[in-house]
C-alpha cells in the first residue's frame, strides 16, 4: 500500500491521531500517549514515528495549512518573541503605574511582556512579566546558537512586583554595576 494516493498522505488511525495531537503542543511523547500508544514506550515510539517521512510530511502539511488559515508567519512569531526577550524593565520602573489604565502609557514592547496584574494586600498594582530567560532560550534555539532540546516551559513568570519594587531592584542593579566598574 502506498503512503501517498492522489496527493493525500495515507496514515493509520493511530498515526493520524498522533499527528493531530502533536500539532496541539508539539510534544511528541504526550501526542503518542494520547494517540493510544503505550505510555511506557511512548518516548521511543514517538521517535520512531517522527523518523518516518510520511509522518513528518503530514505534520508539515498541517502546519502549513494552519499558517495559511491563521495568516501567522514565522517572522511575526519571531518578532513577538524578540520583543518580549528584549523589553527593558527600566521602561516600567520609570513610569508611575498605579492603575491598570496606566499600562497603556508604557511602550508597546513592554506592554507585550506583561502577562497579568493584580492588587497586593496594600492596594498596590502588581504586574506579572513574561520570563525573558524563556524567550531568550526560544530565540537561541531558533537561531541554533544553543541546544534546541532545552525545555522552555512557557509561560514561565517572574516573581510579581510593584513598580516601586522594580525601581528598587533596578537602582540596586545599577549601584552594583557602578561599584564593579570602580573596583
What does this structure look like?
With 183 residues, the chain is mainly alpha-helical. It folds into 2 domains: 4-72, Orthogonal Bundle (Arc Repressor Mutant, subunit A), CATH 1.10.10.1400; 77-182, no CATH class. Helices cover 55% and strands 8% of the residues. Helix 2 (28-34) crosses helix 3 (42-50) and helix 5 (74-85) packs across helix 8 (132-143). The longest helix has 20 residues, at 163-182. The termini are far apart.
Regarding quaternary structure, how should these chains be classified?
Answer: single chain
Structure classification: mainly alpha
Number of helices: 9
Cα-atom Rg, whole angstroms?
22 Å
Main sheet, how many strands, which sense, barrel? Answer: 2 strands, antiparallel
Question: How many β-strand stretches?
Answer: 4
What percentage of residues falls in helices of 4 or more residues?
40-55%
The overall pLDDT average reads 80
Side-by-side strand order of the widest sheet: 1-2
Shape: elongated
Write down the secondary-structure element order.
EEHHHHHHHEEHH
Q: How far apart are the termini?
A: 74 Å
Total domain count: 2
Strand content: 5-15%
- Outline the low-pLDDT stretches: 150-157
What's the SSE blueprint?
Elements: E1 4-5, E2 8-9, H1 13-25, H2 28-34, H3 42-50, H4 53-70, H5 74-85, H6 89-93, H7 108-111, E3 114-119, E4 125-129, H8 132-143, H9 163-182
